[in-house]
């Protein structure tokens, strides 16, 4: 028994080290790849020593590449943890913010906010966009939860989520008909999903929101572990089920809303990555899976963003296209495995 526990701990440590190394490699490749070629030595000097300050190469790294790859890592991890919380809430491995229509709800409300407020201000503050996305996420989540009370079959609930997503997309398209050309261009680019155009002020906002949320979710790891064993067991452990479920909804919505606010709707990350983390760790313990899911999501999205930028350069793919290309086959495999 003791040797078995030691083996598990060793496995966790090795996987975490490999994930951190993979993230480091992904970040180095991302910052070293682009239309402007720079040597590794030059990049290190610009980042560490702040050499060539004000030069073209320095501006490319500090104003374009660094914010973009950090956003991909932070938001990729946030979306993955959001998926894990939803899978815990609904007790189903294929629940996720995109499939359940939560990302579409966030997209709808952000689109509405952009169209209304851009008539009065030149640019929306990041906090306003995040708040709008959060409200939209909660609205969609409310409809999904209402459907969950009436529908016991998870496949039907997922179908309801897809329909909610279509409804939200239709409402968003309706808003676009009354938008100005500039607003339409901004909405179209944002709704395609991309980590481009993110600045340091955006990084500050998303860092605060995501890591505070992640800290709270980590504090909930014991109740999540008890909830995984059933509501009856969780209640016997003294957990307030209504409050606990409310917290799951709030933080899963907040994390997915933050991603949608800054990068647009991104498909399949919230479904696939938590399951990949469980396979890697060979456990479902929340205290292990939550940080593993965050790291796996960060690695996944940084590599997907690198492919989106470089596969057909100078043409850039939307991040949702690349994540769907890798995530959709994995979700199909999950469905077949669950059916089997």
Automatic annotation (TrEMBL):
The chain crosses the membrane at residues 12-31, 69-86, 98-117, 123-144, 156-178, 198-220, 246-268, 288-308, 317-336. InterPro entries: ABC_BtuC-like, ABC_transptr_permease_BtuC. The lineage of its organism: Bacteria, Bacillati, Bacillota, Clostridia, Eubacteriales. This is Iron chelate uptake ABC transporter family permease subunit. It comes from the Bacteria. GO terms for molecular function: transmembrane transporter activity. CDD domains: TM_ABC_iron-siderophores_like. Belongs to the binding-protein-dependent transport system permease family. FecCD subfamily. Its main location: membrane. It holds the Pfam family FecCD. GO terms for cellular component: plasma membrane. It is a multi-pass membrane protein. It comes from Acetobacterium paludosum. One of its GO terms (biological process) is siderophore-iron import into cell. It is found in: Cell membrane. Keywords: Cell membrane, Membrane, Transmembrane, Transmembrane helix, Transport.
